[in-house]
């Protein structure tokens, strides 16, 4: 690798990505209705022309990854090291805390309830009646569809294989453009095309991170009012986001193997502790029974649910929105997974990200969302009224208030929610800094800059109400269009580079 190139800031990427975000904020403050119209029409166009393509891309990414993991190529060691840099627990905790954090807590309570109260159109004609015992498993299965195997597979499995090949084995910079190195070669290192690839990837992941930061301000502010009586107003939301920015900045500055890893590890421990409490003192039998049966429905209808095209309005609101969000994270997550996975095999990475993480995520959704369904069945309106009146932020607290020791459990869930978003913010600040320098240990001031910028954008957009945050979140789907075209070649490039590395490592002749 050319040492003169590493550590340099790619100012065109920096300027384009930062400039687009700042322009978005200015437009939102100047005329939020204009932004709503622009984003809505762009969103509709993206969902119409790319929704089906994204569904196929997600399926192909998952199956190609599984095929690689359980083939002879699964033995390939990546990153030029014989032993992993991180222990298994530390490695998995960073993966789980970063990737689930963007929406796992925010959606885990609300989404299963939505699908329980209104049966998904993919289940039409099966005689399922909403808000009844028969709607439980399909509600959970639909949530598993959105947060399970396909969602995780696009976040740094086969794309991480190609990234690690390009960076560690061929000396390319740790930037999104390196994903296309097997096609374009060295010419990508200094090209306007490479600049656009990097800029689009940074914009997509920054928008995807700012959205959860802003929604956290809304959810945590609502929670503080419900638990402690603190007014749910802009000053409270601002204080929450300021705290997130400060903590995530400190974490990003201390580095990947200190602050980010420690925070992720603590977060995972707290989540495990809360899950254990709910299973023991909450509806444990209900949770286990419907996790198993709901997962059975998910596996049984995996392909048909993944390829459902029957209700385009519903798809745009749910599946296509989520797929756009996760695809937008794809290149940056490939960088993060590559950075922490040196010495791991292809099999290690794909099993961890495409199998282990989805199973844990779906169980988490069953613990929180399944408990909500249990309480709603026992006392109709106990969860749905809060959800319908105040939206997603209300669902989690309506559920936690039903548990024993609610005065302790509810604040702990509030802390967990905040820390989950902090772990996303700090790791993405670090990863974006890597993407604009091309190296694994970027300058501290650059990590600080992105942490502060994302928090600042979230705060400014809150001035417009939650509309600005919502429009930025929808903007992710638009930015996912070019990013999906970057990720498509991974389907055939990952097997290609795996074959080359297998020859180098004498796994095949």
Enumerate how many helices there are, as a single number. 23
Q: Could you say what the CATH topology is called? A: Amino acid/polyamine transporter I
Distance from N terminus to C terminus (CA atoms, Å) equals 27 Å
Taking all Cα atoms into account, the compactness measure Rg is 22 Å
Q: Please state the overall shape, judged from the principal axes of the Cα atoms.
A: globular
Under the CATH scheme, the architecture is Up-down Bundle
Mean pLDDT across all amino acids: 91
Strand element count: 0
Strand % is under 5%
Order of helices and strands: HHHHHHHHHHHHHHHHHHHHHHH
Give the uncertain stretches in residue-range form. 1-5
Helix and strand content put the structural class at mainly alpha
What is the CATH first-level class name? Mainly Alpha
Task: Kindly report the oligomeric state of this protein.
Answer: single chain
Helix content: over 70%
Structure description:
The protein has 23 helices and no strands. 56% of the residues are buried. Residues 1-5 have low confidence and may be disordered. Helix content is 76%, strand content 0%. Helix 3 packs across helix 12 (256-281) and helix 10 (192-228) packs antiparallel against helix 22. It is mainly alpha-helical. The protein has one domain (11-22, 35-505): Amino acid/polyamine transporter I (Up-down Bundle), CATH 1.20.1740. Keywords: Cell membrane, Membrane, Transmembrane, Transmembrane helix, Transport. Its main location: membrane. InterPro entries: BCCT_transptr (IPR000060). This is BCCT family transporter. It is a multi-pass membrane protein.
């Amino acid at each position: 690798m050319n040492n003169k190139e590493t550590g340099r800031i790619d100012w065109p990427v920096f300027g384009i990505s930062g400039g687009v975000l700042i322009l978005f904020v200015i437009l939102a403050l100047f005329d939020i209705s204009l932004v709503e119209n622009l984003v809505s029409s762009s969103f509709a166009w993206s969902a119409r022309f790319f929704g089906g393509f994204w569904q196929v891309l997600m399926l192909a990414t998952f199956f190609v990854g599984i095929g690689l993991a359980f083939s002879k190529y699964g033995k390939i060691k990546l990153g030029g090291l014989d032993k992993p840099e991180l222990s298994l627990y530390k490695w998995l905790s960073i993966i789980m805390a970063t990737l689930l954090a963007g929406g796992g807590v925010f959606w885990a309570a609300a989404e299963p309830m939505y699908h329980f109260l209104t049966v998904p159109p993919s289940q039409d004609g099966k005689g399922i009646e909403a808000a009844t015992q028969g709607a439980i498993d399909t509600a959970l299965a639909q949530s598993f569809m959105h947060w399970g195997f396909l969602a995780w597979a696009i976040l740094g499995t086969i794309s991480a294989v190609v990234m690690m090949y390009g960076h560690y084995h061929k000396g390319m910079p740790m930037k999104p453009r390196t994903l296309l190195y097997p096609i374009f070669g060295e010419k990508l290192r200094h090209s306007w095309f490479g600049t656009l690839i990097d800029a689009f990837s940074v914009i997509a992941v920054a928008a995807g991170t700012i959205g959860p930061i802003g929604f956290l301000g809304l959810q945590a502010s609502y929670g503080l009012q419900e638990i402690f009586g603190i007014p749910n107003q802009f000053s409270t939301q601002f204080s929450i986001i300021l705290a997130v920015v400060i903590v995530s900045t400190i974490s990003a500055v201390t580095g990947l193997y200190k602050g980010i890893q420690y925070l992720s590890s603590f977060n995972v421990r707290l989540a495990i502790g809360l899950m254990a409490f709910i299973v023991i003192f909450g509806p444990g039998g209900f949770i286990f029974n419907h996790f198993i049966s709901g997962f059975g429905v998910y596996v049984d209808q995996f392909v048909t649910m993944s390829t459902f095209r029957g209700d385009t309005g519903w798809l745009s609101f749910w599946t296509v929105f989520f797929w756009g969000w996760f695809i937008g994270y794809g290149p940056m997550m490939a960088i993060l997974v590559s950075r922490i996975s040196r010495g791991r095999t292809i099999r290690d990475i794909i099993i961890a990200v495409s199998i282990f993480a989805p199973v844990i995520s779906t169980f988490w959704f069953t613990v929180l969302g399944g408990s909500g369904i249990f309480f709603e069945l026992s006392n109709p309106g106990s969860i749905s009224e809060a959800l319908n009146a105040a939206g997603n932020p209300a669902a989690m607290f309506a559920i936690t208030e039903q548990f024993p020791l609610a005065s302790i459990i509810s604040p702990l869930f509030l802390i967990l929610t905040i820390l989950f978003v902090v772990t996303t913010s700090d790791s993405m600040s670090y990863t974006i800094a890597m993407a604009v320098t091309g190296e694994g240990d970027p300058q501290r001031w650059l990590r600080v800059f992105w942490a502060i910028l994302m928090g600042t954008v979230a705060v400014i957009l809150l001035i417009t109400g939650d509309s600005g945050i919502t429009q930025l979140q929808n903007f992710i789907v638009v930015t996912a269009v070019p990013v999906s075209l970057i990720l498509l070649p991974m389907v055939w490039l990952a097997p290609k580079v795996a074959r080359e590395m297998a020859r180098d490592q004498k796994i095949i002749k």
